[in-house]
Amino acid sequence: MNCRRLVATGLLFLLTFISTSAAADSPIDKEAALEQSFDQLVRQAQQAFDAEDYEAATEYLVIANQIRSDPRLYINIARSYEEAGDCVGMLAYYSAFLENPTDEEVLIDRAQSSIDDNIEDCEGFDESLSGRVVFVSEPALARIYLDGEYLGLTPSETVGLAPGPYEVRLEKEGYEDYTTTIDVESLSPLELSATLREEVEEEEPDGPDEPTIVDDSGFSPHPLAIGLAGVGVGGLLAGAYVDLFRLPSIDSDIEDAHAAGDHGRVDELRDSRRGWAYGAAGFYIVGGLFTALGGGWLIYDLYTSGDDAQDAPFGWQITPSVHTEGAGLNLLRRF
Questions:
Q1: What is the pLDDT of residues 245-263, one digit of tens each?
Q2: For 3-195, CATH number?
């Protein structure tokens, strides 16, 4: 079996953010890195590599590869793993480059030479191991759990899983957990792309509206009773005006006419006085009657106002009623 086939079978292609041999937590601020340009990420990778922070260099390069896929990045990632002493990651990325080579023969030769020189001494190869497994989510930076083991933040990738089913759970604050099962197969790349749903706070269902309680226990005068009493008071005032002002004025005119010997004028004034006297009497009678009706009605309403008709005298409540079809009394009692 040639070296390229052996690496493809044992290492399973490309490792991007997190491999099984790497630490679960990212060595860089991945959220900030995701907002940077391709060129900025490459420069930061070079700075990290020069500072011998090979894990950070790898993170920057694989994020750059998400923005713009470039096989030459695999060579640099492989070099980072090589300097870090991780032969599995190194061979995985050299193998990934050979699966997607450029036209640069020098790079191809270098990758193949590195595989040939290191494959026999690198433990951990197994022909049954899986291909590359990619985890992507929208939004990004969700925590990945594979069979309960924390792998890192999306987007991420891992290699070297044994074939079979795995439970994947993605978690992100403010979003519902995403859970699914994936079936890993040997030499078969697999991508899990999930859209997370925002959490919605469950509101307690509103119960039926409480009936509006009308407090009718207080005294509320009937408008008709007020009207009757008002007409009655008006009649009494009119009678009093005639009695106190109009009749004395006529009496004075009669005396003047009598003193002047104008008997015709005297008779005329006496007839007028008689009419005004009858009018005053009528005002007094009608006013008194209406005042009695309206006032009695108001007094009765005041006396019978309460929470219950049982509070009325003898347990009965009588209310006058006037409408377009007639008038009468409402007799009310609760049993």
A1: 888 888 888 888 888 888 7
A2: 1.25.40.10
